[in-house]
Amino acid sequence: LQDFFEIVGLSLGVSLAATAIATAVSLPAGAALAIFPFPGRRLVVVLVNAFFGLPPVVVGLALYLALSHSGPLGPLGLLFTPAAMVMAQAILAIPIITALVHRASERAWSRYGDELVSDGASRAQAIPNILSIIRAELLTATLAGFGRTVSEVGAVILVGGNIRGLTRTMTTAIALQTSQGDLSLALALGAVLVGISISISATVFALAGRAKTAGSDET
Amino acid sequence: MNKARSACALVAAFILAGSASAAERSITLASTTSVEASGLLANILPQFTAKTGIKVNVVAQGTGKALDTARRGDADLLLVHDPEAEQQFIDEGHSASRRQIAWNDFILVGPAADPARIRGGNDSVAALQAIATARAPFVSRGDKSGTNAAELRLWKMAGQTPDTLNKTDWYRDIGGGMGQALNAASAMNAYTLSDRGTWLSFNNKGSLSIVVEGDGRLVNRYDVIELNPLKHGDARLEAAKVFADWLVSTEGQQAIGAFQVNGEKLFNPSAPSPR
Lengths: 219, 275
Fold this sequence. Notes:
In chain A, 79% of the residues lie in helices and 0% in strands. Chain A is mainly α. Chain B has 275 residues and is an alpha/beta fold.
């Protein structure tokens, strides 16, 4: 049972950290992609959307080779640690969050863009304003990213190694239980994983709802 | 902004926690799946860690992959069971020492219907020939694990090569671990070769049972392999040696011999007199 809480804690810790990193990168990136025109922007947008479907096992393998002691990032000694799992999941979540933020920003920009820069503000200064206009969509984007990270198994089992007490998450534990023929235990763990995902999304929406009413009271 | 800051703090705390736990005295053991899936390591490691303070992080892989992990420098010690692949690893100069810690045996398991009529025999090669003649479904690990290598050696004695086998429709190469192979064999009513440890602790046997056992060619040896410091200077070899020495010590051998599942002993300690 102690194992169980460790596994759930690690799953949540890794996925939340990865989602936080991915969000920190993707929010400004997605908005900037909508606001700044540059040559090749269409191509970048297409690529970001294509990476939605980045196969986790390929990301895991590439990161595995990079973090291996004989790979370019080997000296960091991160292979088979939670940090490596955070990296893998962040890489998987970034395209999803960026693409969703970009799509919402594009809409907001075409509607409010002229206003936002009319009083002499630069386009860069408009980024926080855009993000604040689309904050409801940001929530969905972030949760989509979190959903990707917490449910993923292919990448984390490669770079984490499914080490008991160190890098065993809910998904890799489910894979292990299945391989031991403990199908009912694996299914029970799966149900817990789904339950946790649902409660997190419900909590976030509840908090967002309260923040919204509080915010409109202030202004 | 506050949100972003607390998110950053969370990430930083997490990464620090990760690196702090890596900085303790710990080693990475690349092991075969059978010693992990059977529960042996989970059973004996706490005893070792309590005594020495060294934490053993087990990455369970097929023997082929485990050897590769060590070749790349991503493991500090090996616990594997494929004498031929091990010999190649040693010939390449990666290893400083190899010691046998235990043995058990491989078994052929098959469905209750037994279409090849091999139940109760003890000649594994004749049994495989009967399976091929009957064109009865057979599941192969196909993952370069120690068990996969043992299976292919037996098929070779039975007059079949991977080429001839993969052309048939009854030989099913699933490319997975022992548990996956047993799950697949159970679902397809197929025969498969398993190590006894994984079999005894496996919980989804369905109609599968042991059909052939007790053939001298089915012996399954587990070796602990230390790495060559000249090739693997970065590895935590000192702590790895402490664990390897413990495995072959009287205490370690007793711990291995005492491990049972459902009253059956899974591994026979054999460091004093290797098989």
